[in-house]
Structure formats: structure tokens, C-alpha cells
Amino acid sequence: MLKKLPAGCKLVPLKPIDDSRGTLTEVYRQQWVEETARVQWNLVRSNAGTLRGVHLHAKRTDFLIVVEGEMWLGLYDMRRSSVTFGQSHLLCITPEMNVAAYIPTGVAHGFYFTKPSMTLYGLSDYWTLDDDFGCDPDDPALNIEWPGDARILSERDTTAGSLAEMQAFYDKWQETQ
């Protein structure tokens, strides 16, 4: 299933500190990802069977933590200059793992939730549709076998185009930079 993450992606270990009162866990330090600070944080609740994505950002990075539940993170590297270009990855993240996932620009990603879940994620740039490209999460070219059969998708994700279309759009965007 998972050999290694796409180049530049990270699983950042979180270190909970327990005592008789409960637990404190640092969830973010700017030095962990060595880039610009997060400018926006989102708290998202997802129902069991929800699939969010697959999305791609050309300008912003994501830093996400599973607070509750279980998230299957699907990744696909769209950066032609990357040593992991065209590779797919699927991993399960739970709160008990005490990790945060860092997703750089150019890595397409989707989230599938097998049970009611809550995620917290920070963005390096403000969210905008201008930097939120999508493709069909079940496109065979993604080579991601999402767990479960139930699919609760947004209308946008239901009507998203192919991976090839998203790759062409991303390549064209890269040429203009």
C-alpha cells in the first residue's frame, strides 16, 4: 500500500504530554515545515463515507491533523520534476497515530472518512477556488483504491473531470509561472 510519500510530503510526529489533568499536544510549529506560516485554519467534520477531493493546489500547502475518527489520505504526485511524479499513495491516519500530514503544492490529495471524523488543517495561503483544482476521485489513472463502497461527494467532486485534464491544467499553470 504505502512505500514512501511523494517527495516533499511529510508525516510530522506530534508528541502528546499526558498528566492527571489530561493531554496537551502541540499541533503546529512553523519550523516543522520550513516555509511560510499558516494564514488560515479550518475545522472540518465529515460523515462516515465522505470522500473529499481529489484536489490540487498550485500555490498553497496544507498541514492537516485528524482530531477524531479515521481518514484515508490519498496522494498523487503531479509535479513532473519530482522523483515521485505519477506515483499514488494511500495511508490511514487516526488521532492515536499522533501525526500531522504536510502536503506541498503539486500533490493531488483526497480524504476518505470511514467513520464520523474531524480534521484540523492549516493553509499557507487563503482558500480560494482559483487555487483548488479537482478530478474524479475514482479515475483509474489515479491508481487509488479508496476503502469502502459508500461515497458521499460534493456536487463539485461528483462532476470533476479526469486526472489527465487536471494534469494538463496544472502543467499549463506551471508554464506561466
TrEMBL record:
Residues annotated as signal peptide: none
Entry EC number(s): 5.1.3.13
Site annotation Participates in a stacking interaction with the thymidine ring of dTDP-4-oxo-6-deoxyglucose: residues: W127
Matching SUPFAM superfamilies: RmlC-like cupins
InterPro entries: RmlC-like (IPR000888), RmlC-like_jellyroll (IPR014710), RmlC_Cupin_sf (IPR011051)
GO BP field: dTDP-rhamnose biosynthetic process; polysaccharide biosynthetic process
Top-level taxonomic group: Bacteria
Catalytic activity field: dTDP-4-dehydro-6-deoxy-alpha-D-glucose = dTDP-4-dehydro-beta-L-rhamnose
Name recorded for this polypeptide: dTDP-4-dehydrorhamnose 3,5-epimerase
A molecular function GO annotation: dTDP-4-dehydrorhamnose 3,5-epimerase activity
Gene Ontology, cellular component aspect: cytosol
Role played: Catalyzes the epimerization of the C3' and C5'positions of dTDP-6-deoxy-D-xylo-4-hexulose, forming dTDP-6-deoxy-L-lyxo-4-hexulose.
Record-annotated active site: H55 (proton acceptor), Y121 (proton donor)
Top class in the EC scheme: isomerase
